[in-house]
Amino acid sequence: MIPIDNIYKAAEIIKKTVIRTPLVYSPTMSRIFGADIWLKLENLQKTGSFKIRGAAYKILTRKKEICPGGVVAASAGNHAQGVALAATNAGIKSTIVMPEWASISKQEATLSYGGKVVLAGQSIGESLKKAREIAEKGKTFIHPFDDLDIITGQGTIGLEILEDLKDADMLLVPIGGGGLISGTACAAKHLNPGIKIIGVQAAFCPSAYQSFLKGNISLVKSRLSIADGINVRQTGRLNFQIIKKYIDDIVLVKEEHIAAAILMLLERKKILAEGAGAVPLAALINRAVKIHPNTKIVLIISGGNVDSPLVGRIIQKGLLKNGRLMRVKLHLNDIPGSLSNLLSLIAGLKANILHIYHDRHIQDMALNMTYVELELETRGHDHINEIQESLNNSGYKSV
After folding, report:
1. What are the ACT domain coordinates in residue numbering (predicted)?
2. What CA dihedral angle connects 160, 166, 167 and 172, to 10 degrees?
3. 175: burial class by Cβ within 10 Å (0-12, 13-18, 19+)?
């Protein structure tokens, strides 16, 4: 759909603006999933995401056509930052419309790159509408994904991957509006026609998934997701044309698997990925993608702009999913030594006690009883089962 020469040209034009991000092999993940797993680390890109590629190419190649008022874009965060930085580097003013729920940290990052932030809309679609209205007053609109220049710029990721790993068998790519996957696919399928390209989308907003199944663009209802970067209710028109031609499959992942993927990347590779960037790994965790031994699979970790206040909640959700946290709620006899005996049992089972809540004043609880709630650090689901069995055998009954 997009000539490979155009993507090579884009790579040359933006090479001084973007970082050639590393493609790293993960022995641990390869062992866990039974294939050779590689990670394309776009979370290390300028602005923390791949979006700077398309934005920079668009602005640098269309600079003479941009209105005197500058550019305007709509985004929940990553496209916002990419456009703001690319415009500032080119000496152009930028206005970014962000949905009202956009995180404060992403608003502040966009401002720091020189963009003017306007909050409008409860969805990306509503923000896009507002951005188009602003464009009518003398600014050049830059679409986050449904634009050939944007798609071409994102395609440089595919070039880099296939230059570093010519015999890659499969790419797992986050998909929302479709800019990243359509650009990457155009490059990858040209350089390696046999490569499989799988899109991964959050189940809370399955727009590309539904469109792919039905064969036409579908507008879907969505729910707030920790993968907010791909929370797009409708896939782009240009993007979908490429998706139909080049994409082999699209799969869905649940919130709990996305959280588990963020945690695995953080613990095993010391990589901080945002929800959208972690969905390729989530697709391996929930077995949504069938893989074969000795195949080379590349996960595109598309961004790392996760909100600091959200990190703790995501980690805890991931720990619960992986059996690394356990909550125990019990009634104990309110006599000396009861709590000590319980804690000794827990210690003997090699569980680490993180929090204890102890309350004698629970409504409808017998006067000679006390309520205890424990949060334990555990090694996995087998360890949790061992603890629960020991508690039951010792006469402790969960509330």
Report:
1. 327-399
2. 10
3. buried
Q: What would the pLDDT profile of 126-164 be if each residue is shown by its tens digit?
A: 898 999 999 999 999 999 999 999 999 999 999 999 999
Helix (H) or strand (E) holding 94: strand 94-98
Give bridge partners of residue 74 from the DSSP assignment.
97
* DSSP symbol at 351: P
The candidate with the shortest Cα–Cα distance to 177, out of 199, 160, 153, is 199
Q: Which residue has tokens 């046999």?
A: 194
In which residue are the tokens 């092999």 written? 25
Domains annotated on the chain, with CATH: 4-49+149-320 (3.40.50.1100), 51-147 (3.40.50.1100), 323-393 (3.30.70.260)
In 110-236, beta strands by DSSP E:
115-119, 140-142, 170-174, 196-202
Cα–Cα dist 42/40, whole Å: 6
What is the pTM for the complete model shown?
0.86
What backbone torsions phi and psi does residue 177 show, to the nearest 5 degrees?
Answer: -75, -25
